[in-house]
Design goal:
198 residues, mainly alpha, globular
Length: 198
C-alpha cells in the first residue's frame, strides 16, 4: 500500500513539474524572461508560489525549464512529421506548423528565437547557450530532411530555411501582421517544390 501511495505522489509531483514547465514556456514567451516572475508562472500553472521552489529554486531554473519545454514541443512536432514518408512533405509540414502559429508570431515572435535574443543581452551567460541548443536541434532535423532529399549542402539549406522562419517571425512581430507568415510560408513551400531531386 505504501508503494502505491509513493507511486501516486511521484506521478502527481511529475505532473506538477510538467505543468510548471509548460507554464514557464508560455509566460516567458508572452512576457519575456526579465518581466516574468515566479508568481506569474505559479499562477498560470495553478501551483502555490511556495511549492514552485520545491521544483525550481530560481527564476533562471524556470527559464531553463521553459527552454526544455520548447525542445520537448519541437520533438513532438518533428516526431509527428517523421511519420510522413517523404522528407519534402515533412519540411512542408514544418512550414505549415509555423504558419499555423501566425497570430502568436505576430504578437510575440518566435518562442525560442525571441528568448535567445533576450538572453544574449544579459551580463551573466549560460541561458543563451541553452536557447541556441534548441535552435540547433531544429537545424539538425531540417538538415536531415535535405540530406534525405539528396540536396547538395543540406546544412546550408537548413540554415536558409530556419533563417527564413526567424526572419518572417521577426517581421510579423515587428509589423504586427500575421499575413507576413502566410505570404512568406507560401514562398517557402514554393521554394521547396522548386528543389529538384538529384
Amino acid at each position: 500500500m505504501t508503494d502505491l501511495k509513493e507511486s501516486a505522489r511521484g506521478r502527481a509531483a511529475g505532473a506538477k513539474r510538467q505543468r510548471l514547465m509548460r507554464a514557464a514556456a508560455d509566460v516567458v514567451y508572452r512576457q519575456g524572461a526579465e518581466r516574468t516572475t515566479i508568481a506569474d508562472i505559479a499562477r498560470v500553472a495553478d501551483v502555490p508560489v511556495g511549492n514552485v521552489y520545491y521544483y525550481f529554486k530560481t527564476k533562471d531554473e524556470l527559464v531553463t525549464a521553459a527552454l526544455s519545454e520548447h525542445a520537448r514541443q519541437l520533438d513532438l512536432l518533428t516526431s509527428g512529421l517523421d511519420r510522413l514518408p517523404d522528407p519534402r512533405e515533412r519540411l512542408k509540414g514544418l512550414i505549415n506548423a509555423w504558419v499555423s502559429q501566425r497570430d502568436l508570431a505576430a504578437r510575440y515572435g518566435c518562442p525560442t528565437g525571441t528568448l535567445a535574443v533576450e538572453l544574449d543581452k544579459r551580463d551573466e551567460g549560460g541561458l543563451d547557450v541553452e536557447a541556441g541548443r534548441v535552435i540547433r536541434l531544429l537545424l539538425a532535423w531540417v538538415e536531415r530532411q535535405f540530406h534525405e532529399l539528396d540536396q547538395p549542402e543540406p546544412d546550408g539549406l537548413a540554415l536558409t530555411l530556419v533563417s527564413a522562419y526567424q526572419g518572417m517571425s521577426l517581421l510579423a512581430n515587428a509589423l504586427r501582421d500575421p499575413g507576413v507568415m502566410d505570404r512568406e510560408g507560401a514562398r517557402l513551400l514554393a521554394w521547396l517544390d522548386s528543389l529538384k531531386a538529384t
